[in-house]
Amino acid sequence: MRIRIEKAACVGNARCAAVSAEMFPLDDDGYIATEGFDVPEGQEKTARNGARACPERIIFVIEDDGSISWPPQASA
Fold first, then answer.
1. Closest CA to 72 of 60, 54, 64
2. Alpha-carbon gap, residue 23 to 1, rounded angstroms
3. In whole angstroms, what is the distance from residue 32 CA to residue 27 CA?
4. What average pLDDT is seen over the chain?
5. Contact (Cβ atoms closer than 8 angstroms) between residue 61 and residue 68
6. Fewer Cβ close by (within 10 Å): the C or N end of the chain?
7. CATH number listed for the domain at residues 2-70
8. What is the DSSP string of 4-58?
9. How do strand 2-5 and strand 59-62 relate by DSSP bridges?
10. Closest CA to 5 of 54, 75, 42, 45
């Protein structure tokens, strides 16, 4: 599993970092400091919770098969 973050869209709510400051580090101004990472084995639940905590929905959970499981994708 991988996390992808639209860093430029971060507004600094820091809710992801409240879930895990190690997984979702913030810069000196309080914005997300990473564009994404591979989720360590056993840390999937924490990564999902951090993604879901973002009210802006700029944190994407990419499954091993390449599908996006969060945020929900609009149906066509």
1. 60
2. 13
3. 6
4. 96
5. yes
6. C
7. 3.30.70.20
8. EE-GGG-----HHHHH-TTTS-B-TTSSB--SEEEPPTT-HHHHHHHHHH-TT--
9. antiparallel
10. 54
pLDDT (tens digit, 9 = 90+) per residue, 35-57? 999 999 999 999 999 999 999 99
Whether this prediction's pTM lies above 0.90 is answered by yes
How open is the CA angle 70-14-67, to the nearest 5 degrees?
Answer: 15
β-strands 36-38, 2-5: how paired? antiparallel
- For residue 52, give the DSSP letter: H
Residue type, 52: R
29: helix, strand or coil: coil
For 2, residues 6+ apart whose C-beta sits below 8 A from its C-beta are: 36, 37, 38, 39, 61, 62
Q: Cβ of 70: how many Cβ atoms within 10 Å?
A: 17
Query: What is d(CA 36, CA 4) in angstroms, rounded to the nearest whole number?
Result: 4
